[in-house]
Design brief:
With 120 residues, the chain is mainly alpha-helical. The protein has 3 helices and no strands. It is flat. The structure holds zinc ion. The site of zinc ion has 8 residues, from loops.
Length: 120
């Protein structure tokens, strides 16, 4: 009987710890979800602000610096994407095999890659 009550007490303590842990884990999940929602809301606010400024519907000296920064990064990203796309679509003039962006010779037929193509 004594052993049983001791075991039961240990079990209760364990269950309480698990419950407390679960509660904390739930709080952390709620926190993470709220943080994610906040990030998304801020992103949306930023995008809408950017669009308004780009359309010249919003003019704020305080926001100009951030606006210019976003616009520059956006342009860089588009240029990088265009470059990656151009790299992918390059092909050998002789055999039409796809070429690496920096390839000097075709890996399929060995033809020299035109310098004009490499420069573009
Ligand atoms: Zn080739």
């Amino acid at each position: 009987m004594k052993l049983w009550s001791g075991l039961k007490k240990a079990k209760d303590v364990t269950m309480k710890a698990v419950a407390a842990g679960t509660e904390r884990a739930k709080e952390m999940i709620d926190e993470a979800a709220l943080q994610r929602q906040l990030n998304e809301a801020c992103l949306e606010l930023g995008q809408k602000t950017f669009e308004l400024m780009a359309a010249e519907k919003l003019d704020s000296a305080e926001l100009t610096e951030a606006f210019v920064k976003v616009r520059e990064l956006n342009e860089k990203l588009e240029a990088a994407r265009a470059g990656a796309e151009a790299g992918k679509t390059r092909e050998c003039a002789a055999c039409k095999a796809p070429l690496d962006a920096d390839a000097a010779f075709c890996t399929e037929c060995g033809a020299e890659v035109a310098k004009a193509a490499a420069a573009s």
